[in-house]
Task: inverse folding
């Protein structure tokens, strides 16, 4: 299997750019790959996808050369196991607020001696048995990225302990839920939200972690890259469709208001 490009770029300190996949249908994932994103977060938390959609979405990502990351609905061993068995190259785990919760991610996602992930050698991740057990375990314990979401003020309070948990690859900041946990839902620029975001970036960087964040647009992404964030999840495919369609409709406004001019 080719190396995990996102892991390699992050290790080299290079920024990587992805987006959330909320639209159904594998072609949406292919379009994001064709457009040039480094990774796609197949969003089982806020997206509409059921478990049955996941194999097709992962295959589409592989075909399009975009690294598929799965955001599971919650920090649950079975959900982590199923995503990895199907071939996810990374996991986003929402609402990680304590060291015990971070340790549970590693335990569910890695095989012995790093964890206790349920073992099945014939899955898609193991190339249906084409890999030897040794090759597969080595790959499974080294390749998929484990990305924990810090998106509650509790997670920031417990950040030092979370950063001390071995096996986490990326600290990802969720500004939307963070704002809600502070009682200012949706106010991403609120000084208290900004303060927690900045504290998280500073501490995670000091501890040597790549830091990720959700960005609203390219200007926002540039601001975070300047702040040392290297894993940027920018918007969602449904926003791109909406924004593109809206911009087109706005351009058509003069023609729509003067249909006679068309005759
Ligand atoms: C949040 O901001 O809460 C998110 O989950 C976005 O990624
Ligand atoms: Mg969130």
Result:
């Amino acid at each position: 299997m080719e190396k995990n490009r996102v892991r390699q770029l992050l290790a080299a300190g290079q920024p990587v750019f992805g987006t959330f996949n909320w639209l159904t249908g594998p072609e949406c994932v292919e379009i994001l790959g064709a457009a040039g994103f480094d990774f796609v977060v197949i969003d089982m938390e806020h997206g509409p996808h059921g478990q049955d959609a996941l194999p097709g979405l992962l295959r589409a990502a592989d075909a399009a050369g975009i690294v598929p990351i799965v955001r599971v609905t919650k920090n649950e061993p079975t959900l982590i196991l199923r995503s990895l068995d199907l071939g996810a190259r990374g996991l986003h785990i929402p609402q990680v607020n304590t060291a015990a919760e971070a340790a549970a991610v590693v335990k569910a996602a890695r095989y012995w001696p790093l964890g206790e992930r349920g073992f099945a050698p014939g899955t898609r991740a193991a190339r249906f048995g084409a890999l030897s057990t040794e090759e597969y375990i080595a790959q499974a314990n080294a390749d998929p990225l484990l990305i924990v979401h810090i998106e509650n003020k509790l997670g920031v309070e417990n950040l030092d302990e979370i950063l001390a948990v071995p096996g986490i690859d990326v600290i990802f900041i969720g500004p939307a839920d963070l704002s809600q946990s502070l009682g200012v839902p949706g106010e991403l620029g609120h000084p208290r939200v900004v303060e927690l975001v900045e504290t998280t970036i500073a501490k995670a960087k000091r501890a040597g972690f790549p830091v990720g964040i959700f960005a609203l647009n390219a200007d926002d992404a540039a601001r975070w890259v300047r702040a040392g964030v290297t894993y940027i999840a920018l918007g969602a495919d449904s926003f791109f469709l909406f924004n593109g369609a809206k911009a087109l409709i706005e351009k058509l406004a003069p023609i729509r208001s003067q249909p006679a001019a068309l005759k």
In short: The chain has a mean pLDDT of 96. The chain is about 45% helix and 15% strand. The CA atoms of residues 116 and 224 lie 35 Å apart.
